[in-house]
Amino acid sequence: MSKRYFINNLDSPLGQEFYSQLVKEDTEEGVHMATYTIDDPNKMPPKGFKKILKRYKPKLSRKKMLEECDVYVYDVASATQTDLDFVCDIFRNSKTTLEEQKVLILVSSVLTWSAMPDKVKPKVEKKVDEEQEGEQQEQQEQQQKKEEAEAEENQEPKEDENNQDQEQDQQQIQQQQINEVPEIIEYVPWEESDYKLRSASTQYQQLKEWEDMVLGLQKENLKVIVVCSGLIYGKGEILFQKYFKKAWLQQPYKLSYQSDGNNKVPTVHITDLVKMIVKVSESIPESNYIFAVDNTQDRTQKAIIQGIATGVGSGWIEQNDDFFKDFTPEEMDCFRLHLDCKTSQMFIGNEETPSDFEWHCEKGIAFNAKKILQEFTSIHKLRPIKIIMESKAENMRFQDILNMISDHYRIPVINQDQIFKDAQDPNYVFPSEIQEDFNEYWPVIQEYINTKAPAQLSEQLKIYYKVIKWRLSQNDCQNRGFILQNFPNFFEEADFIFYPNKQKLKMKKKPKKKPVVTEEEKKQPQEPVVDENGDPIEQEQAEEQQQEEQQQEEQQEEEQQEEEQQEEEQEGGPKPEDFFPESYIVIKPLGKTDNFDYNRKLINFFSERNLDAYFIDPRKKTNHDTFEDLRIYIERNGRPYNYLQNEKELIVLYFNLQKIKDLTIKYTRKQSIQIWKEITKVKKDKRQDLVTKYTKYIQEQEQELQQVKQFPFRNYLMDFVVPVLNEGLVEVAHILPDDPVEFLAEYLYKRSFNVDNE
Q: Could you tell me which of 721, 748, 718 has the C-alpha nearest to residue 732?
């Protein structure tokens, strides 16, 4: 850049992009100047800039701007009325003389054209050919002669004459209707030369007044140019930021457009806008008004939103007014804007004078959605979180931990069944090249999934791996990441999925089915096959040519594969796919035993590729503690932005949960003490009842003993013992047992229970 620039508000989005373009040049000393939105005396000028001017020193700023700058760039999006009055007063001053060429550039917006209707193509009068005029005259003369002859031959009453007149009038009307052709209204884009006709709506009238104020400056050696930019996108997004955020998160799943979406919205990438400003300042055009818009073929709002949805989101759009709840009125006006304008010839050129302008995004948002997405993710620090989680024992707690990680990082949980459900989901645009093979081999693939055993690579498994690769390459997985639940199961699957393996997964070409020829087609004469020169070829020669072409295609593919293999060997081996995982988590089962069968081959496969498995035992931890441990492991290389919860919020949440845990422990302690007291009281009452019962029984026994002691012992024996003993002896004498003593003892023992009753 040979010019010295003054940038108003260098800290604005346009100023920052301008700065990134200016610092690409290797300049030892600063040559440019600028201002900041808020004056800061302690701020040093950045690289490439000589001085940061202060608004509270207007005389010094005026002098420096005139003496040491060639181009003055003001942006209406960040400038104020004071800024524009200041620069206009500098050049209006009669004392100011410009010895060198100066350029004042006002970067405006297409919103100054917001009240403009479509431009109607001017009418071109078409001259009637002389031959057609002659024929019409001859027809008219013939009609007149016929009418005169009929009038002479047939002299009828007045009523007949009136009828003839009516018929003639009807014929003339019919001829006029035939000759009249309905006018077709054609619309053409607005051009830069039409800027004096522009009209802005009420809320953007001030922008138009600023344009008129700057365009009204007339001074020798001063060139004033208004660069009317389209809606700006790119480098993190300004206006389209909410659209890209919703598409990246897929919340909601479908993006929305306003009304019918057929309004034409001019757009421009912010990098292209800066390049256009530099181009205008370096090679000054004759026109004072320049359209700075990209060369998009389809400018409709619907096409732009569809491009964002396809390149970033789910690929689906709809018309839904609830989508725009968080949009400001200014943003709504921008998307409702309808302006069909032509890109300046200065940037696209024509056949006679081609342009040397280097575009960054010439064909707009829809065509460059992936490039814009890369800028968006790098500026907002977004990156995918790709995880494999494995657990031999699937239960509710494992599922809870899985859902906590999925909800926190906003990433989908995917397993084998889910992948093939998505493959059959009409919401996903399934690749046409494998659609037919997938429908054919799906039953065999389903058997392989159900067997859960490794198998050799076959045509069916090639489709199986291609479908999995397709699902992991969708926008939600590429942008935000995924959690593969208990998948892959074998190291062979991991190798085929996470590495290209184009040669191994190449499908065998099926023989082309010969078309069924009916008898009617056989009877019809067949057109001869013709070569490049137009000479007829026999059918056998045509088949040989097809075979040769197929062989040539196969040879070219083999050569490409060999070249790719050589490149991989030179680079140190094959590179993994973009969706190669960055975290491998193995959760131990929740049973009592510590021993379980690890998938050692799969662990070694990832370990050899610098991805060590992380083993965690959640048995002695709460779900939240387990989640925190896993979060720390997942974020070991840095925490992405990804519109996640702030770390301060997570700390507050952790302390709140800890407080709740402490309170619950405290409450449970109090509750346990209370329960222990109640239990001890019940036990004490039971013991007291037993004591009273035993005490009463002892007292009764003691009373009986006292009563017994009151009788004389001889009388007691005579009354109670001797009669029973006599009866026992009588029984012994009567029965004559083998052991009389034992028999007598048992007899007395049995009678002792009836003593009280007797």
A: 748
